[in-house]
Protein 1
Amino acid sequence: MFGDMSRWQSMLDRQRELFVEMESGSRLGFVSREASGILPGKHREGVQVVTEVPMMAWEIENGGMSARIERFAGLATSRVDVLLVADREAMDTMLAELGGDMLRTIKRLIRRGNIMFFLFKNKTQLQDAGYEDFLESLGLAFIGACR
């Protein structure tokens, strides 16, 4: 689903500058929309994942962003600050464009509706954790009313 994790890690290493302000332990996750059952228009409380599905987790550790595969069992048990939910087209596009400017690709896919995002911290918590530059790079110019 996510392909070779070393390619994702190389992309994160190239984008290292965006993550320098983020505090250790900050985490983002990517899951497949189809596999997770998270659909547009559903309240997050109403979304239940019947089985665990793969999640690509990005975490700040040792001064940089690391990528790995973990299990995702639903929004209520998610241990991420930001969750990106990508449809099949988005997943295919991201894999095809891993060698390029992935953050620009993700930004484009968010604007087209191929990627939804969920925030699990409020605006102040995200700012304190150093997410501002990263979220702005995705075109989420620092979210006015995080919930």
Protein 2
Amino acid sequence: MKGILLAIIAGALFACYQLAVKLSATHIQEMLGAVVLQAVAVVVGVFIFLILKDGQEPLVYTSTGLKFAIIAGIFVSLAEIVAFYAFSQAIPASVGITLIVGVNILVGLGLDYFWFKSNLSYTQLLGILLILAGVILISWKR
């Protein structure tokens, strides 16, 4: 249950992040906005790390963990840059955020299925089709 609650909080924080990118994207050059966002993320991350790190416990990591953390950092940085450029094009928040989150879900489920060989039930497949339909309907030109 704790993992689900944390995932819900993370989802809410990502939504707030997307809205903040949308609000700033037309008031700042896209690359500058992305750099400021990433610099603030580093400061906040280091600050929280220093607060939460217990001096009694050694830092535990593997080369695989570091490699995938670096890869994740590259992808999130690229996603932030692309999001600034997308939102600077006057795309409505309701469309942009929905597309980003919808595609995120679809790609995430696809990677989970093919990379981790997860099984998908008929209910989950129906959910994927509904998400895909929603993404298409949201982005459809009126």
Protein 3
Amino acid sequence: MSSPKVEIYSKMYCGYCYRAKRLLDSKGVAYVEYDITLGGEKRREMLDRKPDAMTVPQIFIDDVAIGGSDELAALERDGKLDALLGL
């Protein structure tokens, strides 16, 4: 079984971004991080993918918008994150 593609849109000095990445790192999950601190094409891409995104991080697993750090932590707390990550 292949690992799902995990993507995170983040900004520098973002505590929530750090928390989400730390959780994924603790599980040994590889992810692609897009720094949108200065806006640009990746910020536009994030908004195309999730038009109501007002905060970072925005996390996608296999192109499905998961939400932010709180939503990722809730999935972990509810025992659902490992299944999404193929663990």
Protein 4
Amino acid sequence: MRKAHPILSLSEACTRTELSFPTVSAAMRLLMEQGIVRELTGRRRNRLYVYDRHFRVLNEETESP
């Protein structure tokens, strides 16, 4: 995931990394277990994942004091 795009789908990750879907899916599952990414959609298919820490930083910059 790039800083400019903290939200990513598995298919997009496959395209960017040139890795297979099972490999990307397993890696994303590990990242979720470590609390690095979070799944946003709650669906079984077409899930979106967010790099949570970066996303929180972006949101903090837009919140009013």
